[in-house]
């Protein structure tokens, strides 16, 4: 970058600063998408170091999973909620990519995630996909794939019904709402594969459970789960 270009870049940054979507502070030189302070101070769960973490426990007796993980704790009004809001509703898919790379760096240190064959993001219904323009879980999956050195497979696990929001539903109601919502279009592609199923947030686990039920119908399939955040 020559001197004139640098001056112009600094000038435009003063007028139109790029803000960290977690804390709202202006990004400085060499900071990308999320500021350095937030990258290190957000509430990490360290679930990659805890085989029997609370996310894994949610699926005990429901899904036969190999491993489960969420990178952050989610709290209302917190920085992680800000990140997810910008990812989903503010046209910032790059947040998902960055968080995926960060999560992938953690998972490469865990033997339980070293034998993943492919990554499948929880799909959006086609109508919501048209409205948003991208699937936030797929963006997270792409960042994970970069670090885990595997492929992301979209358009095989399909969302056939556009369900209502899950926010105010009980766990039972959430699961009932997700029954028969997902299907696998090409099970042969997944035969004998260890699949990493990813989503943005896990609360009750009903969406991931519904997806996992369909994926584990495939002969020889194994399943692990990873999300950006865990909300109690």
TrEMBL record:
Pfam families for this protein: DZR_2 (PF18912), Pribosyltran (PF00156)
Occurrences of domain Double zinc ribbon (ranges): 13-44
Domain of life from the UniProt record: Bacteria
Coiled coil: none
Domain Phosphoribosyltransferase: 137-229
InterPro entries, alphabetized: ComF/GntX_DNA_util-trans (IPR051910), DZR_2 (IPR044005), PRTase-like (IPR029057), PRTase_dom (IPR000836)
CDD domains: PRTases_typeI (cd06223)
Family recorded in the similarity comment: Belongs to the ComF/GntX family.
Protein name: ComF family protein
Organism of derivation: Mucilaginibacter auburnensis
